[in-house]
Amino acid sequence: MDLGIAGRTAIVNGASVGLGAASARALAREGVDLVISARGEDRLLATAEAIAAETGVSVTPVAADHSTDEGRERILAACPNPDILVGTCSPPPWGFDYRDVTPEVWHQYLAEGMVGPAEFIRRTVDGMAERGFGRIINIATGAAKFPNPVRVLSGPPRSALANYSVAVSKVVAADGVTINTLLPGFHHTAAAREQFGAIAEKKGTSYDDEAAFAAEKYGIPAGEFGDPDDFGAVCAMLCSAHAGYITGQSLVVDGGVTVGLF
Ligand SMILES: NC(=O)c1ccc[n+]([C@@H]2O[C@H](COP(=O)([O-])OP(=O)(O)OC[C@H]3O[C@@H](n4cnc5c(N)ncnc54)[C@H](OP(=O)(O)O)[C@@H]3O)[C@@H](O)[C@H]2O)c1
């Protein structure tokens, strides 16, 4: 199916690896020109090169921290008028005790998970509305909808982002702009490899063993972690020209772990 977005331009923040990179790749496969960002330059340049070589679209890498004013300015300077905006960050530390979440800690994770993405929305959404087309996707976390004591730094900033996104989506819905949030569960990403790879090293097992063990322990009905490329395709689908009637939604992509009847 032709998603009808060839020739559009997208900013994808947090796109050197993981779900952000997979989403950028899926958009590029639909003919979308990209500006992609991440803090670390090496992985970012390698990903930009690989996507451009595979798809032939224009891919501009901007090494920048999107939680800072300076980083946001540089990314927006590279693409002031995107048609599509996708954003994510690394998963905040797992198992952070709520007793240790001081105001300083809040500021750091709110800057990354809420203020940065909201600033990108604020700076781009009116232009999208004036031009009559826009797609905004926050790649957040299942913990935004399903609070969990081990995810106290991950869920709350993204719950706030989803709340803000729904509010703004109502203002721009009649102008062809949609804003939606994806809520991933476990996926085989760089972050997952780091987390479960560290456990494997301690136990003398492998990453695959630990991912399989976690899939069982956390009761993933699909029986395994998700494939980032499939996640990216879902993101591209929500960015498609045909998805204009889906807005203000938060969609869980977690292999069936969480129960939300409607
Ligand atoms: N993977 C999972 O199993 C899983 C499960 C539940 C929720 N999630 C959520 O899904 C999202 C993506 O996770 P992931 O596993 O794909 O993460 P990942 O593999 O760590 O990738 C995160 C990407 O964001 C970039 N990034 C992080 N902070 C940034 C910043 N301040 N400015 C610019 N770029 C930044 C990273 O590059 P640099 O480090 O070089 O900046 C990297 O490219 C996260 O919000 C996470 O909470 C993931």
Task: Give an account of the 3D structure.
There is one protein chain. This protein has 262 residues and is α/β, with parallel strands linked by helices. The protein has two domains: 9-185 and 229-252, NAD(P)-binding Rossmann-like Domain (Rossmann fold, 3-Layer(aba) Sandwich), CATH 3.40.50.720; 187-225, no CATH class. Strands 3-2-1-4-5-6-7 form a seven-stranded parallel sheet, sandwiched between helices. Strand 2 (33-38), helix 2 (41-55) and strand 3 form a beta-alpha-beta unit. Helix 1 packs parallel to helix 2 (41-55) and helix 4 packs parallel to helix 5. The longest helix is centred in the middle third of the chain and has 29 residues, at 103-131. Helices cover 46% and strands 15% of the residues. Residues 13-20, 37-40, 43, 65-67, 88-91, 112, 139, 141-142, 154, 184-187, 189-192 line the site of NADP nicotinamide-adenine-dinucleotide phosphate.
Structure class: alpha/beta
Task: Write the CATH homologous superfamily of the largest domain.
Answer: NAD(P)-binding Rossmann-like Domain
* Spatial order of strands in the largest sheet: 3-2-1-4-5-6-7
Ligand catalogue = NADP nicotinamide-adenine-dinucleotide phosphate
What's the story with the biggest beta sheet? 7 strands, parallel
Number of helices: 8
User: Which sequence of SSEs, written as H and E, runs from N to C?
Assistant: EHEHEHEHEHEHHHE
Note the beta-strand portion: 5-15%
Helical coverage, percent range: 40-55%
Question: How far from one another are the termini?
Answer: 27 Å
Shape field? globular
Number of strands: 7
Instruction: Round the mean pLDDT to the nearest integer and report it.
Output: 97
